[in-house]
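Thread: Newbie trying to understand structure tokens

Hi all, I'm a second-year student working on a class project, and my supervisor (Dr. K.) asked me to get a predicted structure for one chain before our next meeting. I've only ever worked with sequences, so writing a 3D structure as a token string is new to me. If someone could post the tokens and maybe explain what I'm looking at, I'd be very grateful. Here's the chain:
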Amino acid sequence: MGFDDAYIGVPTWDIGRPQREVLALADAGSFRSSVVDLGCGTGENALALAERGHEVLGIDAAPRAIGKAMDKARERSLPGATFLVADVFDVAGLGQRFASALDCGLFHVLDDHERSVYAATVREALEPGGVLHLLCFSDAEPLGWGPRRVSEAELRATFSAGWHEREIEVAAFETNLDAGEARGWRAVFVRE
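---
Reply by user tm_fold:
Sure, no problem. This is what the structure looks like when written as tokens:
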């Protein structure tokens, strides 16, 4: 089953609201406009940023997810949130540079080769000094379900060239499963 098919129902990562970690970052003023939400799904994080006055472009390769995100933006009258069906590996080719990027649940589904391409692509899409906020599953998560786990060392290795690590912190990645959340990492990298 592809990611688009997952949106026929409600995927485990779609909690119907923004992730707590993203809200905390937003409330702390960690995002600067314009923002690109990479793998935005149904748009809850992007919409929360738009509600706080940011210009946000949400991209996802799943047309069903983007359709739902666009409907939510219209229902909430949030013209600052726009959504586009796009491959994250093409983000640098969108003709726009961003001050901030958000990755909430995309990085941990990428394989090793994709991760290195992703880091270079996102770097190219950000302005110099632009910030990537990343939330992913941690290798400390003991449950067997879910995506590939990511170690702190993998994050550092992937974002070593052309990036400055601001922080990597233990975080909660919320899901709609019984446990409600998984162990994750919240990382911040700055484009050099």
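A couple of things are worth pointing out once you decode it. The beta strands are 35-38, 56-60, 81-85, 98-104, 126-137, 163-174, 181-191. The helical segments are 3-6, 20-27, 44-51, 63-75, 112-125, 152-158. Feel free to ask follow-ups in this thread.
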